[in-house]
Amino acid sequence: MWLGVRLGLAAAEYPSWPQFLSHLVYAQNIVGQGDIIGVFWTLAFEIQFYLGLIALLVGGRWLKLRLGEVQTRWIATVVFTGLFVVSVLGRYHVIGINIHPGFALIRWFQFFMGTCVYWVVTRRVSWKALATMWIFLAAVLVIERQPVLQLTPVVTSALLWWSYERDGMATVLSNRIVQFFGTISYSLYLFHEPVGWRWIRLVGAFISPDSPVAIVVAVFGSGCVVAVAVSWALWRLIEVPSMRFSKRVGLPRRRPSASDAHSGGVNQASATT
Asked: What are the structural domain ranges in the chain?
């Protein structure tokens, strides 16, 4: 940001201390501070989604130990269905449902479709659950006259499912180009705006506003190349060492409970029989 201001590539002021501190806990949009860099809003949503999903899974395990498998599955179905429906209706302000734009619930349905694809391919839920989500979302979009682009979650989840069912993603997503961009995708997402777009603005300052289309396309292409190159470098310098470090951090093993020991003994006896 300092370099961008010095080169005339950024007109925004430096972030305030409240804005900076709110980013450290991913709460900048909840408290109304706004994002230092535009792409940061999704990071705040990601952490909320992960924490929320973990809480639901832990709660589900707690219920399973006390109520049993069947009752817990019914409760889980109702909870996840309710979250999905409220998320979609709140996202498009249907029947007066409004969700604070800083809360991930407004995008929960998009994250959850990806989760549901995983559950379908691992045979945890039926494909009919995923198809029902597609139909419900498409119906809301038609009723609310939303642009076709809002169907992106449906298309993406359908493509992932189709890819897996076709060949387990062995060919569709396994070529070297796709794997390369998948590898650097996190860094590329973070830096395509602060690096790629500022590069385009820097180069654009030296060309005429009415330049030929070929020049404009070339400038845009150069921004893409620079963004990819920087993202690859930062993947090597930051992401790879961080992942290596995380693998050296040991987590305590959960001690088997009495119920685990009992079920293990029963399973062993059954296998012996």
From this structure: 39-168, 175-244
